[in-house]
Amino acid sequence: MYKANIYVTLKEGVLDPQGGAVKKSLHVLNYTGVTEVRIGKFIEVWLEAKDPETAKVELKEMSDKLLANPVIENYRVEMLEVE
Amino acid sequence: MYKANIYVTLKEGVLDPQGGAVKKSLHVLNYTGVTEVRIGKFIEVWLEAKDPETAKVELKEMSDKLLANPVIENYRVEMLEVE
Amino acid sequence: MKFGVVVFPGSNCDADCYHVIKEVLGQEVDYIWHKEIAVQGYDALILPGGFSYGDYLRTGAIARFSPIMPAVIEFANQGGLIIGICNGFQILLEAGLLPGAMLRNRSLKFICDKVHLQVKRDDTPFTRLLKQDETISIPVAHGEGNYFCDAETLAELQREKRILFTYCSPSGEEDMVFNPNGSIANIAGITNKQGNVLGMMPHPERCSEHILGGTDGYRIFASMLQSWQEVSC
Amino acid sequence: MKELTYREMGLTEEEYGKIKIIMGREPNYLEIGIFSVMWSEHCGYKNSRPLLKTFPTEGPQVIQGPGENAGVVDIGDGQAVVFKIESHNHPSAIEPYQGAATGVGGIVRDIFTMGARPIANLNSLRFGDPGDARVRELLSGVVAGIGDYGNCLGIPTVGGEVYFNQAYQGNPLVNAMCVGLVQTDEIALAVASEVGSTIMIVGAKTGRDGIHGATFASEELSEKSKEKRPSVQVGDPFMEKLLIEACLELIKEDLVAGMQDLGAAGLTSSIAETVSKRGRGVDVDVLKVPRRETNMSAYEVMLSESQERMLIVPRPGTEGRIKEIFDKWGLDAVTIGTVTEGGAFRVMEGNEVMGEVPVMELTEGCPVYVRVAEEPDYYQRCKSYDLAAILDANPQEALEKLLASPNIASKKWIFSQYDYQVMTNTALIPGDGDAAVLRIKGTRKGIALVTDCNSRFVYLDPYRGGMLAVCEAALNLACVGAKPLALTNCLNFGNPEKPNIYWQMKNSIAGMSEAARYLETPVVSGNVSLYNETAQGAIYPTPVVGMVGLLKDIDRRCDMAFKDAGDLIILLGRFRDELGGSEYLSVCHGLETGEVPEVNLEEEKRLIELLQILIQEQLLQSCHDISEGGMMVAAVESAIKGNIGCGVRINTDDGRVDGVLFSEAPGRVVASLKRSNMDRLVQVVIENGVEMRVIGAVGGDSLLCDNNGKEIIRIPVLEASRIWGGAIDCFMK
Ligand SMILES: Nc1ncnc2c1ncn2[C@@H]1O[C@H](COP(=O)(O)OP(=O)(O)O)[C@@H](O)[C@H]1O
Ligand SMILES: [Mg+2]
Fold first, then answer.
1. What is the ipTM of this complex?
2. How far is D414 from chain C (nearest CA, A)?
3. Whole-number pLDDT of residue D217
4. Of residues C215, C126, C115, C217, the one with CA closest to residue C167
5. CA angle at residue D301 from D295 to D302, to 5 degrees?
6. pLDDT tens for each residue of D617-657
7. For residue D194, what pLDDT is reported?
8. Is B79 in the A-facing interface, judged by CB distances under 8 Å?
9. Which of A46, C16, D382, D525 could bridge to D593 as Cys pair (CB 3.0-4.6 Å)?
């Protein structure tokens, strides 16, 4: 059994209205030191695969196809082996 | 300048409709080894603070107050120093 | 009776609520801008639907820190009548005036439709003109109305009879099939312990005139008016 | 960012030569960029302008025709409606959610730019085969994008249309329409006339979004499109909501001399359009433009298509007050330039002149092409196709197939994702009538809204198809009891440089013009989207019509649901059995061919007027026009809506059975009425010179049809409702 943490973030230059709104709100709450906020997704996937290589390949495929939107998002996969 | 990665995840026991839907879609795409998917948020915050302790305290506060909802979510903060 | 409709920058049902109170119920009403810090002189507050701050991050999360909110909380603690509709309900949850939280609809899609509600109590300031176990028909329009709370809170809500509305079939049967968003125990609306704060996902202001296809919602506002008249006479 | 050549920016060699002559020198990179976006089809209408000139644009009801951000039509009592439709096809093909969302954002800005409060959105969508996974993805993304954006703004999305056809497989269409309400004395226009006036940019900060979007929208989609794709525009509906409120506040306080949204080609086109109207020039300093990203060049700032921005020309001395208002809404409002004499568009970076071009050459100077039109081979072939050789399908099976066709099936899967009731004006919600109806609070009036285009008809016969799009829209409005006032249109075609495509454009525009002229529904605004092609070919020619009508008394409106058992069902209009271009041929015989049914404008007009009278006199219980699926499907839809059965009788001497049941010949409606109203109704119908026939009665719990007394269809309403109601959900599961 494998567990993957997949971090999906907006590509540089792509507007992040959510991050912008949160930043403004943090300023209102007096955290004026905050200079930038970007909001992405943190996806946890548990999967069975015959070996770590297969798992890695599959995870990359699913990220490309489904988990991230390649037009506006980047992603990074981190895989752990669990029992 | 500090950068924090904040991971916001749904608490155990809280239904994750989005994670469930993604899992289903992955099965349809033939990734039948996927046993579970949970979707959370990956929040990146850049901030100025006089020292790392202050930064940490502030990050914890903002997470408690705004970034996560303790009724349904857990969070974890990871902080790095950047220039 | 004088109502105040609290307006957040992304509220969009504020004018609809204002219209119902003024033109249909015939009572006094003001808008209260979220940057105000007092709510004196009002007999009831409405937190209207909309997307208070774009509803980015979580619905209602940012609105809860608006300058007006301490006054709203104080008003609630003093026993003032507050109805939070849709986004208003979400804000009440985030502000802690009501327990629980909202998740995305089970379908992951925004849903705009007419649903049926079962009225659980008719002895509250919001439902006295309805009948217990009656089925009313009312519009919903939301992307995050999937109400969630832990088992303990749910038991408490049930024990204290704080669930005022549940989703049901046109003939009153409660079943997940008739629940548009997946909310726990088919919950559509709940009150606080004292019973003066109501949060509900469906929109009574959208069914308060015949031209809109129904008037069940009007009876909720009219209930508030009658309760107030009773207390103040 | 990598430098592009003028060709990559979409200019031809001749155009480039022309620019050199205008400039009297080699233009620099920024100047080439400015010309290329302004001379794109999207901004310059260089292939369509001569054709657009043929539209009728005037009428006593028209306050503002084409040429401003949106058209304006009088609805009495000092009030007017402002409306326009616009395409966002290319961005939606690349990123369906954001493409569609920003499409809504753009059209909404066009409306409040005129000083109007947006009160309704509609949309017209075309996709390929929903059996295809990519198509479903596009559909889901587009609908969610339209919904989320409009819902957040609190503008109800009250109507529209969706069609599925292989012709749109790689090139979906996403057209969004917005309607606003304005007091006639508060209409704002986009003009900057006073030399010395300042120019302000307000709203969102500028990033590198969608640079060259206008050019990109004027090219065919190819594999390369994905690479060339500019950084995708992301919509921020919350920002737009604030912008609406702030801008309308400025107008209420009469602070603005001119207002212009930033759409395609961003600052460049909005500035050029604002100052060129009066032959002025402008000095603009890009350093003053608030930015979201660092190190942006003048070129990038001028061409960025970042969303949710507006240009404002303040009345003298009002900048301070304007800033205050924007501050209240938490928005930027910054002075970036001045209106000058002499007509030069000068881009500065601080004190340095980065580029200078003559404004008029950007707008009026845009080259105009009258292309060659050539009748395509398929036209005569389809027109003369012998339909007599096609066998009648089993009526019951045919009806079931039609009800399950995604082009006819319930669109609830789509419109339930749109908040169609916010603002509490929607008196006829999606699916309940042939058009959406909104009340105008404080009056007894209502307005009716609709979009229409049967592109299969337009493909088979652009001239008739163009007429039909206008006629169907007008008839849909009449069916709810409204008087059609005026229209907006979005002309979606393939590559106009191809003679067959230009022929489609030319003829469909001619057909639309003729119908609009005859029905007195002038064109007050519109938009053109060309180059809708992929390697597989062009889309069906799709000139979408959006129309607005007026109801004097909103309490007298009519929906499509059958009401009471015993009510009679009538067909108003001629009994016809032409099957050319019908959904029946497509669904039951796999054919998209045949002669498009003839359109008789005089008949159409009489029917439209008759319906308004009948509904005004409250003689009808329901009314539904005959379109996709024909007479039988119209009756079944009314039955399903009313949750009650009906019986329809036909005779074979009326024509072939499938023709009578499923012909989509225009100028006809299926209505129901109380028996007691029959005498009066007959009298009015005769007075108005419309043919009429009783075809059945309402009642029972099944849908029945007899031919010469023999039952040919029997389906329980519940069953029909299940098929019709669930077809799209089935695909989308
Ligand atoms: N894209 C859309 N957006 C909003 N409403 C839509 C859309 N597509 C269809 N509808 C609504 O669904 C209903 C039925 O659509 P359709 O079958 O195309 O209408 P008609 O029978 O008048 O041609 C109408 O009320 C229409 O406004
Ligand atoms: Mg239709």
1. 0.93
2. 10
3. 63
4. C115
5. 150
6. 999 999 999 999 999 999 999 999 999 999 999 987 778 89
7. 85
8. no
9. D382
Which ligand 1 atom minimizes the distance to the CA of D163?
18
Six token digits for residue D408:
């006819």
pLDDT of residue D296: 92
Distance D638 CA to ligand 1 centre (A): 14
Determine the residue of D162, D453, D558 to mutate for testing ligand 1's pocket, defined as the one with the most ligand atoms within 8 A of the Cβ atom. D162
Atom of ligand 1 nearest to the CA of D430: 25
Closest CA to D477 of D159, D141, D183: D159
Containing structural domain, residue C190: 2-232
User: A: neighbours with 3+ CB pairs under 8 Å?
Assistant: B, C, D
Band (pLDDT 50/70/90 cuts) for residue D188 is confident
Q: Which residue of C has its CA nearest to B43?
A: C57
Give C88's Cβ-side CA count (13 Å radius).
31
> Residues 103 to 162 of C: which have CB under 8 A from any B CB?
103-108, 146, 148-150
Structure confidence at residue C162 as a pLDDT band (50, 70, 90) = very high
Determine whether the shortest distance from the Cβ of D451 to ligand 1 is under 6 A: no
Are D541 and D508 spatial neighbours (Cβ–Cβ below 8 Å)? yes
CB of A20 within 8 Å of a chain D CB? The answer is: yes
Identity of residue D59: G
Residue of C nearest to A38 (CA): C57
pLDDT digits (tens, 9 = 90+) for D135-149: 999 999 999 999 999
Alpha helix ranges (H) inside D184-318: 213-216, 223-228, 237-252, 266-276, 298-303
The pTM (predicted TM-score) of the whole model is: 0.95
pLDDT band per the 50, 70, 90 thresholds, residue D214: low
Task: State pLDDT tens for residues B14-59.
Answer: 989 899 999 999 999 999 999 999 999 999 999 999 999 999 999 9
Is residue D215 predicted with pLDDT exceeding 70? no
CATH number, position A16: 3.30.1280.10
Distance CA D470, CA D452 (A): 8
Q: The domain that contains C226 carries what CATH number?
A: 3.40.50.880
Domain residues for the domain of A44 are 2-81
Out of D153, D329, D424, whose CB is closest to C9? D329
Instruction: Give chain C's largest Cα–Cα span.
Output: 48
- Per the structure, the count of domains in chain A is 1
Question: Nearest Cα to D221, choosing from D573, D675, D600, D531?
Answer: D531
pLDDT at D446 over 60: yes
